[in-house]
Design a protein that fits this description.
The protein is of the alpha/beta class. It contains eleven helices and ten strands. The strands form two sheets. The chain has an eight-stranded mixed beta sheet, sandwiched between helices. It holds the Pfam family adh_short.
């Protein structure tokens, strides 16, 4: 917690100065908030093509128009809006197929996610776990082949980065001793939805670390895989949390980063500023920050392996053969 408060009050992430000419970048959840601001930055950094992956096509089109109108530089970027609904495996599979038709792909920023206190199932799993963990990793696996292919062709490491959160350190994770983690998380009687977002970010961190471990970066596999935190930002993510949203929005006024400031961390991760040193790392304030406490412990590593095994089963059910990309 001391690191959190220091970061919020005394650190302002800087936007990397880099020319992204010729590059193609995908940002999920790009019609609002952090994703929108990151997409705008990429356009202003001369990216040739920025793809806004959004659940709502119309809202995505509005966001793309706003970015085009934001500056002369942004107006020169080829902006596209592609449908992507992380609550639907069919939508994710269709998105993955479309990604693999691209001639070039340099970076994917997996930003889309949800925060809800309402228990409901999506694709057979509790919605927060489906969207923030299973579907997000599924999307990552589906874009990996194109990132590898493009990185080799352009002799430049590709980047697959996931937006996590430092709230993983706050997860009570009472389900951690369960024989079947995902099945237990699907139980409405046992689910602590007040802790669910924190747990989803903890599980995402575990999953990304294992994904990076299974894909060691090399000249034959030149893709940097990381997970980042933008810090506590003013965001619409709290809109579905009832009374909690009022409390969180009040806290955001006091100590939250402006969304544009938080988005700089997404951009920094996407350009791979630290090179291969950031592969498999948790990035906080634009630099690697080794996970603390539970995550690197022996028990944490056992849970990471267990989760990955369970995830593989879910992913194969969603898109048969997808785990062969690992």
């Amino acid at each position: 917690m001391p690191n959190f408060f220091y970061s919020q009050f005394f650190v302002t992430p800087k936007l990397p100065k880099k020319d992204l000419s010729c590059q193609t970048i995908i940002v999920t959840g790009a019609n609002v908030g952090l994703g929108f601001e990151a997409a705008k930055h990429f356009a202003n950094m001369r990216a040739e093509r920025v793809i806004l992956a959004c659940r709502d096509q119309q809202k995505g089109n509005v966001a793309a128009d706003q970015i085009r109108q934001s500056s002369l530089l942004a107006a020169k970027t080829h902006l596209e809006v592609w449908p992507l609904d992380l609550s639907s495996y069919a939508s994710i599979e269709a998105f993955g197929k479309k990604v693999n038709t691209l001639t070039r792909l340099d970076a994917v920023v997996a930003n889309a996610g949800i925060l809800t206190k309402q228990f409901k199932l999506m694709e057979g799993n509790e919605s927060t776990i489906t969207v923030n963990v299973i579907s997000t990793i599924l999307m990552g696996l589906l874009v990996l082949p194109k990132l590898r292919e493009s990185a080799k062709a352009n002799k430049k490491d590709g980047v697959l980065t996931f937006v996590g959160s430092e709230v993983y350190t706050m997860a009570k994770f009472t389900e951690q001793n369960s024989d079947k983690l995902l099945a237990t998380l699907n139980s409405p009687e046992k689910s602590n939805m007040g802790d669910r977002y924190n747990v989803s970010k903890l599980l995402l961190l575990f999953a990304v670390r294992e994904l990076a471990k299974q894909n060691p970066v090399s000249d034959q596999n030149p893709v940097l895989i990381s997970v980042l935190t933008p810090g506590f930002c003013k965001s619409s993510v709290f809109r579905d949390t009832g009374f909690g949203s009022k409390m969180m929005n009040f806290m955001a006024i006091i100590m939250g980063r402006e969304t544009e400031v938080g988005s700089r961390t997404l951009v920094d991760a996407a350009v791979g500023k630290h090179g291969r040193n950031e592969h498999g790392e948790f990035l906080w304030d634009n630099k690697p920050a080794p996970p603390t406490g539970f995550v690197p412990s022996e028990k944490g590593q056992r849970i990471q392996k267990k989760l990955w095994s369970e995830l593989n089963g879910k992913l194969e059910e969603a898109v048969p053969g997808v785990t062969a990309t690992v």
